[in-house]
Amino acid sequence: MDTSSRWTRFQTFYQNYKSLGMALDISRMNFSADFFEKHQSSIQQALTSMNQLEKGAIANPDENRMVGHYWLRNADLAPTAEIAKVIRDTVEKIIEFSSSIHHGHIKSQRGKNFSQVLLIGIGGSALGPQFVANALGGSDDLMSFYFFDNTDPDGMNRVLSRIGSRLDETLTLVISKSGGTKETRNGMLIAKAAYARAELNFARHAIAITGEGSELDNLAKEEDWLSRFPMWDWVGGRTSEISAVGLLPAALQGIDIEGMLQGAHDMDEATRNVNLLQNPAALIALMWVHMGEVGTTKDLVFLPYKDRLELVSRYLQQLIMESIGKEKNLKGDIVHEGIVVYGNKGSTDQHAYVQQLREGPADFAVTFIEVLKDEPGTSLIVEEDVTSGDYLHSFFMGTRNALYDNARESMTITIDEVSPKTVGALIALFERAVGLYSFMKGINAYHQPGVEAGKKAATEMIAIQRKALAHLRNNPSRSFSVEELARELDSEKSLEELFKILNHLAVNQRVYVEPASTVFGSTYKIKN
Ligand code: PA5
Prior knowledge:
With 528 residues, the protein is an alpha/beta fold. It is built from 17 helices and 20 strands. Strands 1-2-17-14-10-13 form a six-stranded mixed beta sheet, with helices on both faces. A hairpin with a 4-residue loop joins β3 (58-60) and β4. α3 (81-102) runs parallel beside α8, α4 packs parallel to α8 and α15 packs across α17. The longest helix is centred in the last third of the chain and has 26 residues, at 449-474. The chain starts with a helix and ends with a strand. The structure holds 5-phosphoarabinonic acid (PA5). Residues 122-125, 176-178, 181, 184, 236-238, 322, 448, 451 line the site of 5-phosphoarabinonic acid.
């Protein structure tokens, strides 16, 4: 394409959403001239379905739930006065509670002001808070943040050692919508044990954010934790950043949560627009549809040119892949729908995988995120008339051009600055794009049967381990090969798993291993 037609195409497909402090450019996506016309009816239908979803239609049929994250930033939309009230009351409680913590009206057990926060959660109960804490945090933070987002004991010990002696001024948020997620439960138990070692009562430092009546909720009530905040069945884990899950941590950190709510609210308004060019979420969803129509499945690479946004790809990876990655559509047909999402940040990735993006398979489209504001105040001049931020911006444009010149597709989201408002708007933008895309594809974006399958399989592994240990304990003088043990446990279908379990137990000194000439001949005995 010559320069003048490129400029014309840019002007057509660069849409500036001034009130959102954001622009979207899809001019470097290679969709056909009739693309919009071809998909007009399907996207309009998706917009209508979104409208019904926002009014409280059951949009997650498997779980028979409404999908109400849009009400969180506009309680007037909630289908009942009761839901509207609980949304407003929760935001108010978050603001009041955070203020009491900041002003020392609520103190730790030893009478200290809380200065640290340990957040325990996983998936949708951690990724949003991590993204926001990194995007909007800084030297003015009112509290320092730490995360347990896994069940890795070594990982948690590292976090605890960073908190060190400040555990007595650490508030621990345990976040789980279901209240029964094992990784989070384990994190809570490890944190509890650390408080006990420091002769502190965990309950005096703990907050639960969970569904009413969940295991976690009951425990927090029973042990009289410092406070409890609600999660509702009509908010999904990965769309919960604008509920107490994301707002409480953000408020504690000192982030302007009203700005986040406003940004999300404004984006919701913009993305209800049936005029496609004026609706950035509809354009993004359409571009994802286009990516699936070009013969090969295309991955989605997020490249924000801003360190603060480096977790955006992890956050969006979950939002998009857990929502869209589905075996079956709503009719029950096998579709294996999905978009691979990865990324990190520019220009760092220029020195990593961008080489392959330019010269390897053209099986992706990049979403660049351009941030206009470099830093508060003026920047150091590193060369004549050039700052470090100018370099960052030039690397963004350079990579965008280099990809374009080699027929690689990209879109660009431009934001004025990273602020509570633009971060709230970005979250709402992709929540809506995911919703529209899934309606267009006829899939349920709001369940996660694949995640459940993995959890179920892990529970079976724990059951095998329990059986194995019990058998070894009941036969303390015997040393078993994997095959013998499997036979006696009637677990011959799980030989491989038993082999792995025994080796894991051996390395962690919970069983003895007697080595043999081959690794499969080793025998295992209980450690007294
Ligand atoms: O998006 C989701 O629903 C999941 O990623 C959940 O957030 C994740 O499995 C954690 O679940 P819970 O909040 O119930 O502990």
